[in-house]
Amino acid sequence: MTDLIDKAQESADYLLQQEIANRCRFEGESEKECIECGEEIPERRRALGGVKFCIECQTKIERKRR
After folding, report:
1. What DSSP character marks residue 49?
2. Alpha-carbon distance 11 to 31, whole Å?
3. What is the pLDDT at residue 25?
4. Does the keyword Zinc belong to this entry (predicted)?
5. For a disulfide at 28, which of 33, 39, 50, 63, Cβ 3.0-4.6 Å?
6. Going by C-beta distance under 8 Å and a sequence separation of 6 or more, which residues neighbour residue 45?
7. What angle do CA 66, 37, 33 make, to 5 degrees?
8. pTM strictly above 0.90
9. Rounded Cα gap, residues 40 and 32, in angstroms
10. pLDDT tens digits for the chain (66 residues)?
11. Element of type H or E holding 63
């Protein structure tokens, strides 16, 4: 039972570290248009900083990573 709990904790720790690393990447100036499809990136999304893709393209990219 302990091994299962330890593995779950390790997995949770890993995911947290990935999220922290991803958050640090949002730096710099955002693009006005998606570099994948050319659609305009909404101002609210660009305000995050470092945004290069529209939400649709970003979602596709993240799904491919899984």
Report:
1. S
2. 33
3. 62
4. yes
5. 50
6. 30, 51, 54, 55
7. 110
8. no
9. 6
10. 678 888 889 988 888 888 777 665 667 899 999 999 999 999 999 988 889 999 999 999 999 987
11. helix 55-65
Distance CA 10, CA 8 (A): 5
Q: Around 47, how many Cα atoms within 13 Å sit in the side-chain half-sphere?
A: 3
Name the one residue in this structure whose structure tokens are 């570099």: 35
| Rounded distance between C-alpha atoms, residue 31 and residue 41, angstroms | 7
Quick check: helix, strand or coil at residue 33? strand
In angstroms, the CA 49 to CA 7 distance is 35
Would you say how long the chain is, in residues?
Answer: 66
**CA quadruple 58, 60, 62, 64: dihedral positive or negative?**
negative
